Amino acid sequence: MIRKEMIAMLLAGGQGSRLGVLTSKVAKPAVAFGGKYRIIDFPLSNCINSGIDTVGVLTQYQPLRLNTHIGIGIPWDLDKNVGGVSVLPPYEKVGKTEWYTGTANAIYQNLAYMESFNPEYVLILSGDHIYKMDYEVMLDYHKAHGADVSIAVMPVPIEEASRFGIVVADDNGKIVEFQEKPKEPKSNLASMGIYIFTWKALKEALITLRDQSNCDFGKHVIPYCHEKGETLVAYQYNGYWKDVGTLGSYWEANMELIDIIPEFNLYEEFWKIYTKNDILPPQYVADSSVIERCLIGDGSEIYGEAYSSIIGCGVIIEEGAVVRDSIIMQNTVIKAGAILNKAIVAENCVIGENAQLGVGEEVPNKVKPSVYSFGLAVVGENTVIPPNVKIGKNTAVTGETLPEDYPDGILASGETLDKAGDVQ
């Protein structure tokens, strides 16, 4: 029988609804990041850099682009005869069949996959965080403490602790209490949603809790293991870690890549981030262009101006166009004279001549104020914006829009224009 010391289970089925129109046609882990990557590249690269060569990727919501991106795992050296990467969607079974209804339920439905590798340890990961972590070091910590479950935690400011699942640990790192988004936190150690289980403890907990509705690690499995008296330890991580779950944090994490000394460095030789690279020509930068502090993807053509922005692969910025503090995803065209300030433009869009994005005062979005905020103008994929229109802040635009969709040529701040049915 095959035996792997540790396998990874990567939860990548989430919709990421707080990213608004960016995730209307694509799972959150497949959203573009940093000009040439997708979010899932980071945990996958961490796995191979940590010596883990067996990864199950659990997909559910809008999986097509994610599946295409992962393929058979070649970019991450995960195309193995034994192990490698396996995409695990929910599937029909004899009797009770259901979608994945919670993080732990998704893992439970793949017990047979894990069993086939007879692992000693199982690493549970989320597919939507930006960070570099050596899981081997965490495993050594897990073994040294004789733990049944290890939870990766990181210190957060105590005033922000009520937003997280909080772990209270003693001086030896042993966990004594959990608090789920507590009003009065007893600690500032936030769970990162990264767990190492001994296979025996995980299997027993999942089978016992199999009828729990929306079974979740933070809410059900971890408390169950704790109450049962198993040894749970907190593994403290102090590096860069970003949950890019909101448009604001997604924009910030991208912008941090172009800091003079970036907090998160994509250029380290010893910890590379791997991705599927399309066959593209090199960038072209015209003599008419002005570029300051940008990341620019392969195959892009810059004739206009770009400042403090992330420009994806195959993007064209025409002469006279100005892009500032923005994220432009692949194969988008910014036409001549267009001006973008603090915009996120998804893949395969056309921004018309002399159009202006991110103008005017900042007012709350009328439809989804908690999503379309942070002063951003957000454009969903395959969107066409006609020439000469003005689009305000905290806005969302999606679909092939026409001049008549903009009264007096303006979409005011806080408004939403949905021609594709993407704003739920």
Describe this structure in a few short sentences.
With 424 residues, the protein is of the alpha/beta class. It contains 8 helices and 33 strands.
Keywords:
424 residues; alpha/beta; seven-stranded parallel β-sheet
How would you characterize the overall build of this protein?
The longest helix is centred in the middle third of the chain and has 11 residues, at 217-227. The termini are far apart. Strand 2 (32-33) and strand 3 form a beta hairpin. The radius of gyration is 23 Å and the shape is globular. By secondary structure, the protein is of the alpha/beta class. It is built from 8 helices and 33 strands.
Topology readout:
Layout: E1 6-11, E2 32-33, E3 37-38, H1 41-49, E4 54-58, H2 64-70, E5 84-88, H3 103-108, H4 111-115, E6 121-126, E7 129-131, H5 135-144, E8 149-155, E9 165-169, E10 175-180, E11 189-198, H6 199-208, H7 217-227, E12 232-236, E13 241-243, H8 247-256, E14 284-285, E15 290-292, E16 295-296, E17 301-302, E18 305-307, E19 310-311, E20 316-317, E21 322-324, E22 327-328, E23 333-334, E24 339-341, E25 343-345, E26 350-351, E27 356-359, E28 377-379, E29 384-385, E30 390-392, E31 395-398, E32 410-411, E33 416-418
Parallel strand pairs: 1-4, 1-6, 4-5, 8-12, 14-17, 15-18, 16-19, 17-20, 18-21, 19-22, 20-23, 21-24, 22-25, 23-26, 24-27, 25-28, 26-29, 27-30, 28-31, 30-32, 31-33
Antiparallel strand pairs: 2-3, 6-11, 7-13, 8-11, 9-10, 9-11
